[in-house]
Amino acid sequence: RSDQIRQGRLAGERSGDLEHFLASMETDRWIAEADLLVDMAHLLGLVRQDIINEAPARALMAALLDLHDHGIPEEAFDEKFEDVHAGKEACLIDRVGEDFGGRLHMGRSRNDEVATCIRIRLKEEMIALVRSLADLRRTLLDVAAAHTETVMPGFTHLQHAQPTTLAHYLLAYEQAFSRDTARLREAYARVDVSPLGSAAFASTGFPLDRAYTAALLGFSRPAPNSMDAVAARDFAIEVLADTTAMMTTASRLCEELVLWSTAFVGFVQLEDAYCSSSSIMPQKKNPDVAEIMRAKAGTVAGALTAAVTIVKGLPMSYNRDLQELTPHLRRGVEGAQQSIPLLAGMIGTATFNTERMAAEAGRGFSTATELADVLVREYGLPFRTAHRIVGRAVRHGSLDLATVEGAAREAAGISVVERGLNQERIDAVLDPAHAVAVRSIVGGPAPAAVAVQIDEQRELLARD
Ligand code: ARG
């Protein structure tokens, strides 16, 4: 059977190259299942409104159920049909004859059909993504709970900055992933509207009950404007933006794992399954999963850029350009959906080297801020003066009492020894565990403050 849609208005044959250029068959496999559901809902809608007689309705439903049970036959994906919607219609007409099969497309266009399919498919993907995010968040919380006392260095500018704990570090990532969850949940409400019944853009003179077909397909309501319903792809852009944000965070965590697993840093040992070796260097254990995931974040961001760029110049309503967007949407959500469970696995199976972390926690004068704070709290100095004194002592290479005293005289013209500072106090203050322990306010790394964060996030997770 040839492409029936062309036969009225258009003449002649087309080359395979031309057909291939126009076809969306590869991506249509992604929405083909949804398309059968859309067909069934539309058919039931036609029945309900008495737009179709019982005989063709029965024949069509039987054929659709058969396609659903046994799969859409390969010939429906022949590129001469351009898309699965036309290919499947040809296949239905083959099976039940044009007198019956030619009635399914009453009051419908491929424009509302494809928009409905994409939304159905996207809703499934979003639910799966929120589930994967929940697993990742649970893993981060579990590992964090085991490491509330694991002191490690925290960094700004990738320079040793102040001590923190592994729990506090991982919870920072969990916070971001919980926001990604919230973003997807909010976006879901906007994806969850049915374009079906909008037809080409102007709706239809057939008395379709759009709320009925929307409900059959599990949508919360019909899209309120039929032109917007076929033309809008901001729902896709929104979800791609959400997956881009999520993958950007995933990529940063992957970057930590790559860095932390180097011999220089040595904070983590990744499970062998998440690593590859070298074809020439027999000793190699490379963090390839983390690296691919870091790159995948770029692919997903590229999908968002492509989607925005495809849509931005389009006037109302449907334009064929929109077909070119769907593969990017698929690439974006699939990139995230492949990555997030692997990230959970990688974190959950990693071995953290707590001794290395502890050894690094005090490096680079990482507790200097605490010493300055103590000069303020216990010895009455203005913070800026204390900051200058401690900074000058570090410039001289040490934070022992003699150097700090010299720095105080030099940089502020005062004596901290006269004010009562002694070596014992300095030693206590410079202990990384002490610096963590006193940072006990809301959001801080002290074990008790972190325990509150874990509890709050577990509660949020239970509600998500
Ligand atoms: N394959 C098309 C797409 O993805 C389906 C809609 C085709 N509509 C049209 N007027 N040619 O957008």
Automatic annotation (TrEMBL):
<dbReference type="InterPro" id="IPR000362">
    <property type="entry name" value="Fumarate_lyase_fam"/>
</dbReference>
<feature type="domain" description="Argininosuccinate lyase C-terminal">
    <location>
        <begin position="365"/>
        <end position="437"/>
    </location>
</feature>
<dbReference type="InterPro" id="IPR008948">
    <property type="entry name" value="L-Aspartase-like"/>
</dbReference>
<comment type="pathway">
    <text>Amino-acid biosynthesis; L-arginine biosynthesis; L-arginine from L-ornithine and carbamoyl phosphate: step 3/3.</text>
</comment>
<feature type="domain" description="Fumarate lyase N-terminal">
    <location>
        <begin position="22"/>
        <end position="302"/>
    </location>
</feature>
<dbReference type="Pfam" id="PF00206">
    <property type="entry name" value="Lyase_1"/>
</dbReference>
<keyword id="KW-0963">Cytoplasm</keyword>
<dbReference type="GO" id="GO:0005829">
    <property type="term" value="C:cytosol"/>
</dbReference>
<comment type="similarity">
    <text>Belongs to the lyase 1 family. Argininosuccinate lyase subfamily.</text>
</comment>
<protein>
    <recommendedName>
        <fullName>Argininosuccinate lyase</fullName>
        <ecNumber>4.3.2.1</ecNumber>
    </recommendedName>
</protein>
<dbReference type="Pfam" id="PF14698">
    <property type="entry name" value="ASL_C2"/>
</dbReference>
<dbReference type="InterPro" id="IPR024083">
    <property type="entry name" value="Fumarase/histidase_N"/>
</dbReference>
<keyword id="KW-0028">Amino-acid biosynthesis</keyword>
<dbReference type="GO" id="GO:0042450">
    <property type="term" value="P:L-arginine biosynthetic process via ornithine"/>
</dbReference>
<dbReference type="InterPro" id="IPR022761">
    <property type="entry name" value="Fumarate_lyase_N"/>
</dbReference>
<keyword id="KW-0055">Arginine biosynthesis</keyword>
<dbReference type="InterPro" id="IPR029419">
    <property type="entry name" value="Arg_succ_lyase_C"/>
</dbReference>
<keyword id="KW-0456">Lyase</keyword>
<dbReference type="GO" id="GO:0004056">
    <property type="term" value="F:argininosuccinate lyase activity"/>
</dbReference>
<dbReference type="InterPro" id="IPR009049">
    <property type="entry name" value="Argininosuccinate_lyase"/>
</dbReference>
